[in-house]
Structures are given as C-alpha cells and as structure tokens.
Write a structure and sequence with these properties.
alpha/beta; Rossmann fold; 9 helices; 7 strands; single chain; seven-stranded mixed beta sheet
Length: 227
C-alpha cells in the first residue's frame, strides 16, 4: 500500500485497484502521474485470487475508509480489469460519503468469453480462485447482486490490441486479448473510449493515463477516436 499527498495537492484522492493476479506495482506509473496532477493516492494491494468479490470488498474496506476519511474532498477510484468489478462491489456495500468518479481500464463489466471457456478447468480454478469464477458472461444471481447498476460517474477505457493468440481465438473483435470492447461497456456509464493498446499495458499507456486524469478532473474523456 502507498499513500502520498503532494505539496500542491487537490482536496481529492484516488484509490487504485489492480486486476486479478496483479499487484499494486502494476499501477505505479499511473500513481505517479496522479500525484503529479495533485491527487492523493492509495495504491492498494489485495489478495485478488483468494476470495470472491464480496469478500474482497470487505477486506479492503477498513483501509479505503481510513484513506477517504483523511481527504478534504472526494474519493475517486481508478481500476484495472477485475479491479473495476471490485470497485462496483465496494461502492454497493460501502459507498463513500464523498464518492467522486470511477475510471475502469479493461474491466469485464459484461464478463469475458475466455472465462466462459476455461472456468471449469482445474488449473484455471486453482490459479484464479473464487473471483475468477465471477468473470464469466453469464453470472449467477449472487454475483449480479454484488454488482448492481451504477448511479455514479463511470468512465471506461478499452483496448483493441492483443498479444495473446488464445484471446484472439476466443474473443469477438475488437478486443484487448482478455476482454472484448463490447463487454467493457456498462449501462449508465458516463463516457467510453477505445485506445490502441493491449490488456496488461492499459495501466501504463501514456494516452490511457492522460485520459484517466481528464475524466477524474472533468467527468469526460478529453479526446475521442483514439484507436
């Protein structure tokens, strides 16, 4: 976990939630850019492969609540992949009093066809754990209840490049190798853009970082037709 408020900070803070099987280190470049733009940051490691989304939301609550309570302004969320689903589950259970905006990068809001194909394989279940079973396109009632409709500003950044041959075979185009562009979308989202990069690099892509900051500051992405 890391937290920092620059000398020339805004009153706002950002919680960063990495994707499944990743760590807070993957968000380091984004974190530094947010700090340069005046945001306090909380880059949170969590055990993404050990528990389901509702249990993970409970796990992160004490730390997120403490961070939010120390801010003078709003608390925003910036999330990669499954981190966006965790943010949705968290806000549904523990909505901050001064909730700001949420940016999702490559989040499978509509699930991933790859998870559909692999969910019953023992290796997939062992590696990705309970949350991995919730990444499918057809979710059970409990998962749907964990991920209710959003009523807060959400901006979504999708990629349309792939470095994964398996993803190319299993996903409808366009996709980022892990999630189709169509399945990143979410009813009620405030904005959506597609940029020319692949799933793991979304968090480090300069354009994705620039657009994330634009949405956090203004509620819209700064440019369109970015792919």
């Amino acid at each position: 976990m890391s937290e920092r408020r620059p000398a020339t900070s805004t009153p706002d803070g950002v919680v960063l939630l990495h994707g499944i099987s990743r760590t807070a280190r993957s968000f380091r470049k984004m974190e530094l850019a947010l700090q340069t733009n005046g945001f306090a940051t909380f880059n949170l490691d969590y055990e993404s492969r050990r528990k389901a989304l509702d249990a993970l939301a409970e796990d992160i609550h004490p730390a997120v609540d403490l961070f939010a309570s120390g801010l003078d302004g709003s608390v925003h969320f910036v999330c990669h992949s499954m981190g966006g689903l965790l943010a949705r589950a968290y806000v549904a259970r523990h909505r901050p009093l001064r909730l700001g905006r949420v940016v999702m990068l490559g989040t499978p809001n509509g699930g991933s066809e790859i998870a559909d194909r692999l969910k019953n394989l023992s290796a997939f279940r062992a590696f990705f754990g309970p949350a991995g079973q919730q990444l499918v396109t057809r979710r059970d009632a409990a998962t749907n209840a964990t991920l209710p409709a959003v009523d807060y500003p959400v901006g979504i950044i999708a990629g349309n490049r792939s470095i994964y041959p398996v993803g190319a075979a299993l996903l409808p185009r366009p996709h980022d190798g892990r999630v189709s562009v169509a399945n990143t979308k979410l009813d009620g989202m405030a904005d959506h853009i597609v940029i020319g990069t692949t799933h793991p690099w979304l968090v480090r892509n300069d354009l994705a970082i620039e657009q994330t900051i634009a949405f956090l500051k203004g509620g819209r992405f700064g440019r369109t037709n970015l792919a």
